[in-house]
Automatic annotation (TrEMBL):
PANTHER family: DUF742 DOMAIN-CONTAINING PROTEIN (PTHR36221). It comes from the Bacteria. InterPro entries: DUF742. This is DUF742 domain-containing protein.
Length: 120
């Protein structure tokens, strides 16, 4: 029998400071987060360890809220609170998710295919 990986036992209410709503604008699960600069901001020193972990995770590049939650092994809702705090402190930037592409007009694709075939 293979051992199951140990999961951190940090209740979501501890990571969120007991709050029920994050500050600032609402985040979606696919909101893209990225760190503001290479050096650790002074505002980060006043925040909890979970905030620092999220900021360290995002320093090399951008991740969505869902991906960051998976790396931190926290619920997505708790990660939204952490990200909102860091955006408010100026340590992170958040970008709205990329909208889904619209359905392409089939007749346009067919005309393009006919045009490509005539080039042969």
């Amino acid at each position: 029998m293979t051992p199951t990986p140990r999961r951190r036992m940090v209740p979501a209410y501890l990571a969120t400071g007991g709050r029920t709503r994050p500050g600032g604008d609402g985040f979606e699960r696919l909101t893209v987060l990225f760190a503001t600069g290479a050096e650790q901001p002074s505002a980060l020193a006043e925040l909890e360890a979970e905030h620092r972990r999220l900021w360290d995770l995002l320093r090399p590049g951008a991740l969505t809220v869902v991906e960051a939650a998976a790396h931190l092994r926290l619920p997505v809702s708790a990660t939204v609170f952490l990200a909102a705090d860091l955006v408010e402190a100026g340590c992170l930037h958040a970008r709205a998710p990329i909208p889904r592409a619209q359905q392409t007009d089939r007749s346009l694709v067919e005309r393009l295919l006919v045009g490509l075939r005539t080039l042969r």
